[in-house]
Amino acid sequence: MLKLLDRSGRITTLSCLKSTGNCLPGGKTVEVMSLSGENWRGRDHDLAQFVKDKNEGSEVCFLITGKRRTEALRDRLLEEEVSIRTIEVPLPSGFSYPDAGLILIGEQDVFGAQKKITSKRSSAGRIRTFDEIAPGDYVVHDAHGIGRYDGIVNMRMGRSNRDYLKIDYAKNAVIYLPVERLDKLSKYIGPAGRPPKLSSLDSGEWNKSVERARNAAKKVAFDLVKLYAARRRGKGYRCSPDDVWQKEFEENFPFTETGDQLAAIADIKKDMESDVPMDRLLCGDVGFGKTEVAFRAMFKCV
After folding, report:
1. What is the DSSP pairing of strand 85-87 with strand 59-63?
2. Would you write out the chain's pLDDT as a tens digit for each of its 302 residues?
3. Which of 7, 134, 187, 285 is 20 to 30 Å from 112 by CA-CA measure?
4. 32 exposed, middle or buried (CB, 10 Å; 0-12, 13-18, 19+)?
5. Residues in contact with 60: Cβ distance below 8 Å, sequence separation at least 6, in sequence order
6. Beta 95-97 vs 160-168: how paired, if at all?
């Protein structure tokens, strides 16, 4: 490698740490001031003007990986009548050396940070560890219904002591659940600020409620099967895959998308690119980004 470098003539190396000649024979260390790069995401017109202005006295170079992204950026800036120089080297954020007349623009400066969708599997509120509940929390037992967790107690059963979860129920009834049966409990989910009614162990009301819910769910399931069978026979409009305009529109979003947002956007786009009529409900609390998801779907539709 060193022999190859010797034949290459003048070589410039960049380093944040001081090292005489950067380990190259006969090299000279020169300190130059550097500045952090600017975020150009969604600002193609401003970026084109910046390149035009700087090209007169500085060399502007884009470090972009991937032919697709490189061509997309070239096309976008050609619309602003600007041609650019690119190097296929990964550089997240750019910087500049004003004294050396060198400006490097990184991939994230133009396209934003790469985001990954992490899949999350719902456990439907099932309690997995003791850290998830505290005395006073309401829990649901698979067989006995809604109770109030009252901590762990140690009791002697037979010749040995064991730990049990104490669960209080209506009419001062108590169940002691062995700690290894924690998987039988789920967190109670209900209206905030309103404590639930504890289940009664001697009335059988919990079993009746479960049976009513099971029958209602079964009826809904049969109705949905009929509905979706009818929908499958119909044909919807198949939207085209994302193009440069779609990506440019999405890059104008000034915030970082949440994992749930990205998952919802991916699901909706998949539906829209299919010829099966879409039937999807997007729900979420106030301020969690439903509007941005909806706008991207509308833009794709248009």
Report:
1. parallel
2. 566 666 666 666 666 656 554 566 667 777 767 777 788 877 888 888 888 887 667 788 888 877 878 888 888 888 888 888 888 877 778 888 777 788 888 888 887 765 555 545 445 567 888 888 899 999 999 888 999 999 998 888 767 788 899 999 999 999 898 888 888 899 888 877 788 999 988 878 888 888 898 999 999 999 989 988 888 888 889 999 998 889 888 888 877 788 899 999 999 999 999 988 888 899 988 888 899 999 999 999 99
3. 285
4. exposed
5. 50, 51, 54, 84, 85, 103, 105
6. unpaired
Contacts of 67 (CB under 8 A, 6+ apart): none
Closest alpha carbon to 182 in 194, 167, 168: 167
How many degrees, rounded to 5, is the angle at CA 94 between CA 14 and CA 40? Answer: 165
C-beta of residue 169 within 8 angstroms of C-beta of residue 199: yes
How buried is residue 4: exposed, middle or buried, by Cβ count under 10 Å (0-12/13-18/19+)? exposed
CA pair distance 39, 94, nearest whole angstrom: 9
One-character DSSP codes across 9-20: -------SS--G
CA distance 215 to 302: 43
* Axis crossing angle, helix 290-301 with helix 259-272, rounded to the nearest 10: 20
